[in-house]
Design a protein that fits this description.
seven-stranded mixed sheet, four-stranded antiparallel sheet
Length: about 130
């Protein structure tokens, strides 16, 4: 069993920045985050959950939704069992609860669909004021 805890959310003005963290832990003695691709997803009130970004288990591949390309950057530190989402030039439409998810990866890519992920965190609120 894998636990994911997001942090770093908050209230920021339009044009500001936040860095989200996704910390993973497990009671399994052989756990390593390097076995998992990680995705970030978000859900705004009244809207469906959507994919934001994902990163392969090694970090060699990453993907971004068109709405955040050039503004968000995903990276990971497997030694710290943590994945980060740096969010710059934030817009009011970025307001949502942000979730990270883990996929036990057999390949060097990361899934786009949340249905393909095995574990999901509780989320952290990001609010961007205009």
């Amino acid at each position: 069993q894998l636990q994911l805890v997001e942090s770093g959310g908050g209230l920021v003005q339009s044009g500001g920045s936040l860095r989200l963290s996704c910390a993973a832990s497990s009671q399994a003695s052989e756990f390593t985050l390097g076995d998992y691709a990680i995705g970030w997803f978000r859900q705004a009130p009244g809207k469906e959950r959507e994919g934001v970004s994902c990163i392969s288990k090694s970090g060699s591949y990453s993907s971004y939704d068109d709405s955040v390309k050039g503004r968000f950057t995903i990276n990971r530190d497997n030694a710290k069992n943590t994945v980060y989402l740096q969010m710059n030039t934030l817009k009011p439409e970025d307001t949502a609860v942000y979730f990270c998810a883990a996929h036990l990866a057999m390949s060097t890519y990361c899934p786009q669909s949340v249905e393909l992920y095995d574990y999901l965190g509780q989320g952290t609120q990001v609010t961007v004021s205009s």
